[in-house]
Amino acid sequence: MNKDLIKEYWKLYHESIIAIVVVVVTIGSYFWDSTYSILLLLYFSTYYFRYNAKVADVQRLKAKGLTQEDADNIQFVKRWEQSRNEGKLSYCLFDGAIVQGGILAVFLCLFAIATFGVQQLFAEPSGMFMVVGGGYLAGGIIAGAVHLLLWNRNEARFIRLTQFEHLIS
């Protein structure tokens, strides 16, 4: 490992590292034995390697004369051009309602179970279908609506990044 990189990482993120380590070890030692606490500490140590990759990316961008914001904008334009070609319906329906709605449905179902209890919701066999179906329907509607708003925001950002007429005048 590069000692200078570790020092730089520590200088920038030492408060976060200490807080994470203290919280994880405290919670881990309370609920589990020390083996799980050690495994959690090893998991959080991977942040160093992610930071190392980020520093390498920044140095690569500086060599090209680009900033991180420039690289993010280039990546956004490439990704959004592909999503834009697929269409608004595909973006809102498939990316939003089906994929993100399914993820949101899991949390909505868990929230319903925590709020009303398993015995009350699953007293009859149809209760399970109502909770899961209702959660997926609500998640799909919410995620589809959010992706519709995101479409408009991303479209405006795409136009702002790709139209250069405002720079000429």
From TrEMBL:
Q: Which residues cross the membrane?
A: 12-30, 36-53, 89-116, 128-151
Superkingdom in the source lineage: Bacteria
Q: Which UniProt keywords apply?
A: Membrane, Transmembrane, Transmembrane helix
Q: What is this protein called?
A: Uncharacterized protein
Source organism per UniProt: Mucilaginibacter pedocola
